[in-house]
Amino acid sequence: MKSIKLLIKIILDKIEKGVRKYRGLKAKTQCGGHKGSVQVGGKTHLTKKTFLGINANFNGLVISGGGKVVIGNHFHSGPDCLFISQNHNFDGGKSIPYDNTYIYKDIEIGDCVWLGSRVIVLGGVTIGEGAIIQAGSCVVNDIPPYAIAGGHPAKVFAYRDVEHYERIKKEGKFH
């Protein structure tokens, strides 16, 4: 019985590795460009206006809209994250509550940014290098480098130890 359970575990592990590899290849073909490895562990959808740095890690990120999205090096997202890079034209449109045109807004994510589970990032936002966004947050304004932010809307409530961060970065210790 133990040998059957072990065999099943080995088979399931191989299937999971294959699924992750497939998702990574799919993400590379969906995006507009990437500089290095792309690891995908959960449902991920990118657009042709999405550009990835080195070592992009997605555990579930859906990008919707026609705005440009630039994601820096060593990025990590938790499950069920969402970037929305466009909005309906509600101000100055030809009908209400909105017309059939869109306003595109770019999103820029710095190096070494980590998003917790179910983070939403709206268009027009820049998240600075080394920032961490708490699970369940909605980012509607820029987040400065090294900030730790959370809430709805996300607000900065702490900062990383920048000296430690820079030392680890210089040593090339990336997850």
Order of helices and strands: HEEEEEEEEEEEEEEEEEEEH
User: What does the radius of gyration come to?
Assistant: 18 Å
Total helices: the number is: 2
Major beta-sheet overview: 7 strands, mixed
Give the structural class: alpha/beta
Low-confidence stretches: none
Please state how the strands of the largest beta sheet are arranged side by side: 2-5-8-13-16-18-19
Q: Count the strands?
A: 19
How are the SSEs ordered, and which strands pair?
Blueprint: H1 2-30, E1 33-34, E2 38-40, E3 44-45, E4 50-52, E5 56-58, E6 61-64, E7 69-71, E8 76-77, E9 81-84, E10 86-88, E11 102-104, E12 107-109, E13 114-115, E14 120-122, E15 126-127, E16 132-133, E17 138-139, E18 147-151, E19 154-159, H2 162-170
Parallel strand pairs: 1-4, 2-5, 3-6, 4-7, 5-8, 6-9, 7-12, 8-13, 9-14, 12-15, 13-16, 14-17, 16-18
Antiparallel strand pairs: 10-11, 18-19
TL;DR of this structure?
The protein is of the alpha/beta class and 175 residues long. 22% of the residues lie in helices and 33% in strands.
Task: Write structural notes for this entry.
There is one protein chain. The protein is α/β, with parallel strands linked by helices and 175 residues long. 22% of the residues lie in helices and 33% in strands. The longest helix is centred in the N-terminal third of the chain and has 29 residues. It is globular, with a radius of gyration of 18 Å.
